[in-house]
Amino acid sequence: MYRLLIEKLLEWKDDAHKRPLILKGITQCGKTSLLKEFGAKYYKDVLYFDFEEDKHLIDLFDQNHDPRRILKDISLLKGVDINPDSTLIILDEIQSCPSALDSLEHLNEITPKFHIAAAGDFFDSTLPKADILTLFPMNFFEFLHAHNSMLAMHLSESSFQDDALKTFSSQLEELFRDYQIIGGMPEVVQCWIDTKSIEQVDKLQSRIINGFESDFAKHAPSSMFPKLSAIWDAVPAQLAKINRKFVFSKVKKSWRAKDLEDSLYWLVRAGFVYKVEHIEKPDFPLSGHVDHSHFKLYMCDVGLLRRTAKIPPHIILDKSGNFKEIKGAIIENIVCSELKRIYEDEIFYWSAENPGRAEVEFIIQDGSDIIPVVAKPGSASRTRSLTQYSVKFSPKKSVLTSMDNDKPDVLPLYAFWNLTQWLNHRYNQKTEKENSSLPPFIDVK
User: Fold this and answer.
1) CA 441 and chain centroid, separation
2) Cβ–Cβ contacts within 10 Å for residue 40, how many?
3) pLDDT tens, 202-250?
4) Whole-model pTM over 0.85
5) Phi, psi of 58 (to 5 degrees)
6) What's 247's DSSP letter?
7) Residue of 9, 79, 83, 366 with fewest CB within 10 Å of its CB?
8) 259 near 227, Cβ under 8 Å?
9) Structural domains of the chain in order of their starting residue, each with its CATH number
10) Do 252 and 279 touch, CB atoms closer than 8 A?
11) Under a CB-based contact definition with an 8 Å cutoff, are residues 5 and 34 in contact?
12) Quick check: 127 and 32 in contact, CB under 8 A?
């Protein structure tokens, strides 16, 4: 399956000053498959090592951190010479071997000559000097590419000036509804492509969720386990509320914030949930205006959100105005996940102080711009919240994303993956129009 991160892997491959690469990501998001595919396509030889499967590897790295000895031993282990220019070394599940993780510091001394990529999750310590990339579950573009690669590539090569999105809107809307049900876990996407069986998809999603809970028990402190599971299970119900705000006391009445904060931090750090905190004022630095007592939690994958909440597919497919809150939560989860993939930074939200207050779902920082992002599940060419925010703060840029595809100021939800290009197109175009309306410059001497 095509993954957008392959482009960054190619940049790493060609970087004369590269360091060992660490590819992070939640369990089963496709790290191993991506690195193997990358190696098979762009290298002559791939030496693959899995610390979970081969415990003898741990002994090899436990001896010492001499990089030349390590490279010699792994070459002997595979019976293949390591060519610095054409061999990719993959160290999978590296978090299972702390000494291997530490050795990356020393391998860094010779890495520009060698191509060493590690993959893992649940890192307990500060990562060594390395080039770090994060792989997320598949976004809608990757989901689309898996179903119709020609259409996906056509859309990626087109600009917002042509009518590609409108021409294929029916097909894109249908696939986007499927994406809300299936989500982006690669194995689930492949299952859907192969079988078109929602029953099989549900079973596989349930198995992945159970696997997550096993990971909680395996990698987190034992005292945290019941709290981790309780927070994870509470996310869908709390997202389905009108204000989406996560309330610790709703997880379990006897647990207070101080009882759950460490467990929540673990889930956020491991990438299972995304935390979106409330800001009182969208100003620099955003972190200086955070109200830490109010926040929302979104899941790492919209398909797993649907399955955890036990939402039947017909609710997603329903085109009436029913099920408004849960549909809104699902769309927000997709938009939040995409913002994490694009910016890999903190995301915030804003709400007005007055009762029945306006709320902007997401606030992001893009360079020198603080951008409000409003996401609506149906048709919406304007919103009271964004209007109120704009009157109060006069943002240079703003984003409204909905299912509308014929409004120049609305980014269609199925094109949200192309947010950065849309922002450039919309605001560069505005600047050109404003400049063209200015009177000609007269040089008076």
Assistant:
1) 47
2) 10
3) 999 999 999 999 999 999 999 999 999 999 999 999 999 888 999 999 9
4) yes
5) -60, -40
6) -
7) 79
8) yes
9) 6-134 (3.40.50.300), 143-431 (no CATH)
10) no
11) yes
12) no
